[in-house]
Amino acid sequence: MFKTIEQSFQVSYRYKLFFTEGLFQVENHLFRDLIRSYKDEPVKLLFVIDSGVAEAHPSLKEEISTYCEKYATNLSHTQNIIVQGGEACKNGEEHVNQVLDAINDYAICRHSFVVVIGGGAVIDMAGYAAAIAHRGVKLIRIPTTVLSQNDSAVGVKNSINFFGKKNFVGTFAPPYAIINDTLFLKTLEHRDWISGISEALKVALIKDLDFFKFVEKNALKLSKRDMEAMQYTIYRCAEMHMHHIAQGGDPFESGSSRPLDFGHWAAHKLEHLTNYKIRHGEAVAKGIVLDVAYAHLTGLITEQDFNRVVSVFQNIGFDLSFPLDSDQEVSQLLKGIEEFREHLGGKLTITLISAIGVKHDVHEIDEDLMKEALNLVNEISNLKQFNFAN
């Protein structure tokens, strides 16, 4: 005879995204107030800083120390550690262990905070380390790139790459808070400035025609580093991203659909095939246009809508061509379809669009037609830009 005990429970998550400028200027009380809202006594803080950010902002470490000294009744500053920036920090366990060592050395507990300052890769890696230390140390994310401010740091995922596969090892662990500081955007390389706009176009294409029209109309402004246009783009993209997580019904991706990974099956594989020489956002731009081309070839969208999508990416400044030199590399790229399914499990679900602003899931991909779409993208990327913006 067998007996069964069954129990169900719910866990509520809450986190906030703040927008500011000059976070660690002593007259800015946001960070102090955030920590004080958790506990009105000194709270231990371990800062993990992207090496690229440290180089671009050489006074940052001193500013953090000065800020924490000013508000020492609430902020107990333990150490600033510098970790390698870029996707390389996610390849394997080396940098995760660097963060774990610091968490251990400075006795960061579950009532302490890891504060990570950097691009999306560093935030992914440090977030993973925080999530597995003591089964979960509180995390504050301070993203410093367009892509991390509007997309990757806004979500609930943390990860590193393993077995040559993007984000193979990771956790779902919402941060305590995210703070977007526009000062960090001002020192970005141009590639990093435009790279994150691909994620904004991603959510616009699957969710919001009006937002797509805004990016389309302001594409040239965005390419010329217009801060007002960029701030709205980041805000709206982050807003839709967070709304999807909270209201989409599957925040931890237990189902088979990942609409926020539109264009990502090809992007993730292309990053690996190029040894991460192209930025994630650059790969996403290529992946989105490839899937939109495929949607056009299958009759889901019109040629005019396809051309509009190509136009806005090109006007922003994206190179849409795929740097694949052989049939073997094309075959390797197409393996990304099955790896995408495997990563989530269940049946294959690829998000396409049936109109601008309307997502459309498919469960089969015609590889011959996808190769035709790839050829179309490579051909059109060498042609004169379209311009449908009004």
Which SSEs are present, and which pair or pack?
Layout: E1 16-20, H1 30-38, E2 43-50, H2 51-56, H3 60-70, E3 75-83, H4 94-105, E4 113-118, H5 120-132, E5 138-143, H6 146-152, E6 157-162, E7 165-172, E8 177-181, H7 190-195, H8 197-207, H9 209-217, H10 219-223, H11 227-247, H12 264-273, H13 280-297, H14 303-316, H15 327-344, E9 350-355, E10 358-362, H16 367-380
- CATH class membership of the largest domain: Alpha Beta
What CATH architecture of the largest domain do you see? 3-Layer(aba) Sandwich
Strand order of the largest sheet: 1-8-5-4-2-3
**Basic shape:** globular
Could you spell the SSE succession in H and E letters?
Answer: EHEHHEHEHEHEEEHHHHHHHHHEEH
Q: What name does the CATH topology of the largest domain carry?
A: Rossmann fold
Total helix count? Answer: 16
Average pLDDT for all residues: 93
Helix content range: 40-55%
Biggest β-sheet description:
6 strands, parallel
Number of domains: 2
> How much strand content do the residues show?
15-25%
Distance between the termini: 73 Å
- In total, how many beta strands? 10
Alpha carbon gyration radius: 21 Å
Runs in which pLDDT lies below 50 for 5 or more consecutive residues are: 384-390
**SS class:** alpha/beta
